[in-house]
Design a protein that fits this description.
2 strands
Amino acid sequence: MAIIKEFKEFAMRGNVVDLAVGVIIGAAFGKIVTSLVADVIMPPIGFITGGVDFADKKIVLKEADPAHKILENAIHYGNFINAIIQFLIVAFCIFMMVKAINSLKKEEEPAPAVDPEPTKEEILLTEIRDLLAKKA
């Protein structure tokens, strides 16, 4: 029973719940970015590069042979280029969001400087000074 209680405390911590929400939002955001890259950004890049569609770019290592039921073996470097572009867009968006959130945070005022407590030696010297001042 102690393990179940400990697991419940772990699962209900704020950080774990925040992380779960972040993963869910991240997955949805990933779909948006995938669509943005595939449907909005890559077509103009393909147009600029002369109709090149990066998703179709590949290096064929072994041709397909339907007669012998051999599948094509290829390195799809175009998909890799698309993934890099998607990553850069996501990273830039997250950077801009964090920057915006940080600018909204109110800067904390520095705590007023508190004089340090006098040491025992300083207290003793102060008492000696005061006694000498009374005698004089």
